[in-house]
Structure formats: C-alpha cells, structure tokens
Specification:
3-stranded antiparallel sheet; 6 helices; 115 residues; Arc Repressor Mutant, subunit A; 52% helix; DNA binding; WH-like_DNA-bd_sf; 3 strands; alpha+beta; HTH_HxlR
C-alpha cells in the first residue's frame, strides 16, 4: 500500500518532485528532445552512472520523463520529458535566470561556513 503525501504549499510539492542536485540538470539536458543514456551522462558532468540510473528511475516514477526502449541490436533506450516534466522545466527557467544573474555573488559565498 502506498501512502500519499500532503504538502504545506506549492513550493513544498515542487521541491518534492524535483529536489536534489541532479534532477534539475537532467531536466535541462532533456529540454530539446529525446536523449540516450550515454548522452545524458555526458550532459550532466560529475554524476555517476549509478546515481544517474537512480535519478532517472525516480523521475520516470514521478511522471517527469518517459523511457522508451527500442528492441534492436544493440539495444537502445531514449529518455524524453513528459508534458509534466516540460512544465516543470518551464517553471524552473525563472530560477535558472535568477542563478545566472547572481552567479558571481553565489560563487563568492564561503560555502564551508554555511551550515
């Protein structure tokens, strides 16, 4: 039996779906259309293969992306955004623009002092 969650506000709900370091970067990498696993791995520097697999599974389970398996030799798998994932990407665009605008200031934060 699965338990549904209750959220305190829209931001709480959105962060539950896209939270973590990698999902936003994966969404960004998928914005222009279907991408194969190897291409995704190269498009998201620093992510391990294991973490990428786990994140993709979570994103598929939450309905953010679609996994298409082509039964051929060699096997081919492509990932693409669903309408739900695309709408989250659109919503995150403003946050990305804010980050770009304040990149210098954010990079100057002494992150080791932040608790």
């Amino acid at each position: 039996m699965t338990k549904n969650r209750t959220f305190t506000c829209g931001l709480d709900a959105a962060i539950a779906v896209m939270g973590g370091k990698w999902k936003g970067l994966i969404l960004f990498a998928l914005q222009d259309g279907p991408v194969r696993f190897g291409e995704l791995r190269r498009a998201v520097p620093g992510i391990s293969e294991r973490v990428l697999i786990l994140q993709l599974r979570e994103m598929e389970a939450t309905g953010l992306l679609h996994r298409e398996v082509y039964h051929q030799v060699p096997p081919k798998v492509e990932y693409s955004l669903t309408g739900f994932g695309d709408s989250l990407n659109t919503a995150m665009a403003a946050l990305g623009a804010w980050g770009e605008e304040h990149m210098e200031r954010i990079e100057a934060i002494p992150w080791s002092d932040v608790k």
